[in-house]
């Protein structure tokens, strides 16, 4: 009875909030956005209604009330139906904390205390865990206490520290106390404090200051968080490395109810309490192993119990090793089980050191031996910095040049999915489009690599003698260089130290590697005077600096085929001396991310240019070199999240070789060039989420080789041109969320067309279905997943 009464009170408060903001458009937009994710519950209630008792009065009211009130009443109904009413109460309280009138006024006016936009950076809630419950209870007791404290969770790499921290953040009692005031920050080996704090400021809805130093950034963060004074705050600093204790102390602000949770591979000092993650007991290890091998789902060829016990025993209770090994053995021949068990029984304990762990984990790669390219692709994932998402589009470019994989990315995606299924990498789809099934759009796809597995990739790449290596990783970050020289233990460390010494030899060294990855920050210059990279075919530059100058030796890279430049910092990076690229006669593809694109010279052989989250003004503004002159043989041109792109560069219609033009998430683009019909070889035209695009030019009807057109989420597009009926080779048209787009009568000429759209847009096409004999209308059911929100960077 008490639970129902409390639900009624909360529902009443929601309705009151709606009444208070319904006449303020800004407030109403924020209110609707907050409650938008509750809409699936309405559908779920209907399902419950069919299975359980007849609906109560609240359901009957859904068709009469406003959308916001419908969602509020749905919550009431859902609470009655749910097995655990407390779960719903916590969710409702969290919503009320976000949408009450006081918070709306603070969010809108900018006065008063700080209101966070929900939790920041918290990973997905782990779906299956073992051996963490007791430690979680102890950790919760400390976190739920009032007052200030700094807690440490420590254990060997891959033991489950991040999993435990994520599980804590998702705990209902913890969420009930801290509401949206939970910040989850990946610290890593060389934390970039300014970048971390810049993103927190952005998340809080505040303008991002120009920090003068790390200390200045931390001080400003303290002032920001003190605006929440009176409400509990939980800050998680994940993966803190030795030597960073002083940095952690900088985050210990004088706030009344403020908890810091630190996770580290090493038992650091200076903390109020330490929680040690120990290896799993054998029964828990077996349970975890059986879960990931899915043995219970198999009816035959199940390995005998003794063999399972032997395999699990040699994992020594390390969750990451258990998980990866289990995935690799799932549904594999019995002989492979015996082979792995025998090999794991040799040598020292798998827990002796990280080096030993990497040695043992190498044996798991035996399952990749059926295709050597799979193993090479896994090692390539280590070419990117730790704790960073790896763009699948970049991997497609690298692997197309290194291994001859197809440009469409089908083969690359098959490899990535295999690595993902074995838990050697995790595939993350930021947001899923209906057009993803067409195997041409991978801008929203990323690979996430566990630190330990990245070290495994580095370990694999350093097994050959330096003069024979296929790839070379160089980190010229000042902090990392100093640490390399200071560390004395471990085989990997010795190799890296030798590499540094070799790197700084006064005599220029010829790099034999075909793939070169260089990571640098603003403390290190781009001087390659001691290197002769004449054999490099793929160059990856991982930047964390506002300015980067291509070295003069760049023009000596005569065999370079692919250039990938990714800025991992918060602000856009400017590239200088880009004219040196004109000397590279074999350069086929360039991908730039978060770059202020320079004005290019002439690149006669460039086939593909991809710009992601870039500023294009300097490159294509009036008076600079026409894009048709700069890239006369370009076949594939991609713009994604380029905020300043209002019109296509002059001359794009003169690139006769262009086969694919992709402009996605460029919200300021209002129109396409009038003479786009001159692109006679164009096969794919992709215009996803160009929300300000109001029309397509009539000349589009001249694109006789066009086979795919995607205008999904171009919500301002009012009609298709009459000449679209001339596209005799058009086979696929994607137009989700285009219900207001009028169709001309000429579409009846598109005899073999497949239209992929939503239900509202399908209504327009159904009237033509009887006139187009082979017309196919597909309405895909897209999976809704909001776990990517914390990783989006604007």
UniProtKB/TrEMBL annotation:
Organism, as annotated: Vicia faba (Broad bean)
PANTHER family: NB-ARC DOMAIN DISEASE RESISTANCE PROTEIN, PLANT BROAD-SPECTRUM MILDEW RESISTANCE PROTEIN RPW8
Pfam families per record: NB-ARC
Domain annotation NB-ARC: ranges: 145-289
Keyword Heme annotated: no
GO MF annotation list: ADP binding
GO biological process, one term: defense response
Name listed for the protein in its UniProt record: NB-ARC domain-containing protein
Keywords from the UniProt entry: Plant defense, Repeat
Gene3D superfamilies named in the record: Helical domain of apoptotic protease-activating factors, P-loop containing nucleotide triphosphate hydrolases, Ribonuclease Inhibitor, Winged helix-like DNA-binding domain superfamily/Winged helix DNA-binding domain
InterPro entries reported in the protein's UniProt record: Apaf_helical (IPR042197), LRR_dom_sf (IPR032675), NB-ARC (IPR002182), P-loop_NTPase (IPR027417), WH-like_DNA-bd_sf (IPR036388)
């Amino acid at each position: 009875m008490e639970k129902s009464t409390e639900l009624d009170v909360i529902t009443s408060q929601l309705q009151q909030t709606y009444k208070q903001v319904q006449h303020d458009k800004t407030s109403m937009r924020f209110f609707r956005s907050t409650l938008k994710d509750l809409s699936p519950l309405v559908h779920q209630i209907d399902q419950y209604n069919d299975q359980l008792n007849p609906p109560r009065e609240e359901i009957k009211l859904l068709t009469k009330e406003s959308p916001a009130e419908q969602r509020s009443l749905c919550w009431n109904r859902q609470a009655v139906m749910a097995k655990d009413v407390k779960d719903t109460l916590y969710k409702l309280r969290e919503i009320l904390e976000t949408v009450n009138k006081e918070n709306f006024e603070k969010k809108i006016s900018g006065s008063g205390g700080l209101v966070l936009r929900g939790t920041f950076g918290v990973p997905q809630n782990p779906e299956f865990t073992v051996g963490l419950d007791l430690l979680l209870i102890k950790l919760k007791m400390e976190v739920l206490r009032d007052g200030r404290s700094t807690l440490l969770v420590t254990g060997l790499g891959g033991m489950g520290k991040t999993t435990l921290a994520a599980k804590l953040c998702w705990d209902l009692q913890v969420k009930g106390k801290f509401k949206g005031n939970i910040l989850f920050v990946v610290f890593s080996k060389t934390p970039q404090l300014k970048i971390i704090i810049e993103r927190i400021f952005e998340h809080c809805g505040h303008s991002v200051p120009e920090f003068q130093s790390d200390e200045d950034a931390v001080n400003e963060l303290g002032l920001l968080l003190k605006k929440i004074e009176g409400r509990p705050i939980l800050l998680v600093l994940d993966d803190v490395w030795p030597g960073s204790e002083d940095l952690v102390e900088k985050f210990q602000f004088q706030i009344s109810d403020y908890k810091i949770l630190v996770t580290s591979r090493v038992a650091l000092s200076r903390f109020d309490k330490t929680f040690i993650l120990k290896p799993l007991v054998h029964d828990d290890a077996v349970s975890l192993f059986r879960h990931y091998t899915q043995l219970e789902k198999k009816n035959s060829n199940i390995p005998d119990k003794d063999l399972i016990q032997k395999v699990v025993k040699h994992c020594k209770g390390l969750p990451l090793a258990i998980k990866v090994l289990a995935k690799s053995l799932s549904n594999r021949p019995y002989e492979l089980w015996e082979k792995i068990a025998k090999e794991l029984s040799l040598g020292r304990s798998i827990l002796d050191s990280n080096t030993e762990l990497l040695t043992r984990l190498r044996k798991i790669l035996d399952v990749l031996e059926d295709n050597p390219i799979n193993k090479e692709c896994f090692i390539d994932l280590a070419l990117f910095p730790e704790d960073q998402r790896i763009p699948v589009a970049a991997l497609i470019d690298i692997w197309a040049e290194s291994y001859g994989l197809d440009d469409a990315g089908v083969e690359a995606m098959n490899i990535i999915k295999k690595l993902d299924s074995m838990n050697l990498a995790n595939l993350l789809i930021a947001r899923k489009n209906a057009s993803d099934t067409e195997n041409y759009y991978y801008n929203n796809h990323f690979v996430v690599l566990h630190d330990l597995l990245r070290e495994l990739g580095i370990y694999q790449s350093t097994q050959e003698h330096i003069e024979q290596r296929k790839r070379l990783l160089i980190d010229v970050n000042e902090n990392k260089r100093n640490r390399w020289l200071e560390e004395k233990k471990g085989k990997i460390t010795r190799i890296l130290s030798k590499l540094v010494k070799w790197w700084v030899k006064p005599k220029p060294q010829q790099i034999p590697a075909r793939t070169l990855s260089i990571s640098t920050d603003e403390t290190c210059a781009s001087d390659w005077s001691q290197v002769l990279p004449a054999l490099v075919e793929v160059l990856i530059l991982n930047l964390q600096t506002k300015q980067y100058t291509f070295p003069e030796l760049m023009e000596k890279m005569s065999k370079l085929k692919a250039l990938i430049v990714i800025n991992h910092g918060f602000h856009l990076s400017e590239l200088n001396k880009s004219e040196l690229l004109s000397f590279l006669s074999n350069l086929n593809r360039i991908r730039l991310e978060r770059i202020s694109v320079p004005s290019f010279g002439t690149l006669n052989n460039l086939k593909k240019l991809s710009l992601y989250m870039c500023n294009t003004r300097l490159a294509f503004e009036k008076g600079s070199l026409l894009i048709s002159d700069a890239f006369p043989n370009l076949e594939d041109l991609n713009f994604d999240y380029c905020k300043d792109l209002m019109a296509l560069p002059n001359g794009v219609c003169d690139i006769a070789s262009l086969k694919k033009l992709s402009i996605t998430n460029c919200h300021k683009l209002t129109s396409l060039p009038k003479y786009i019909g001159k692109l006679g070889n164009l096969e794919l035209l992709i215009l996803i989420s160009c929300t300000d695009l109001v029309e397509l030019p009539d000349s589009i009807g001249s694109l006789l080789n066009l086979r795919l057109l995607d205008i999904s989420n171009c919500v301002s597009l009012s009609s298709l041109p009459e000449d679209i009926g001339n596209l005799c080779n058009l086979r696929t048209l994607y137009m989700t969320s285009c219900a207001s787009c009028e169709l001309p009568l000429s579409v009846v000429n598109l005899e073999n067309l497949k239209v992929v759209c939503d239900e509202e847009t399908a209504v327009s096409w159904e009237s033509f279905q009887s006139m187009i004999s082979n017309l196919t209308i597909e309405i895909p059911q897209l999976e809704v997943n909001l776990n990517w929100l914390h990783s989006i960077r604007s």
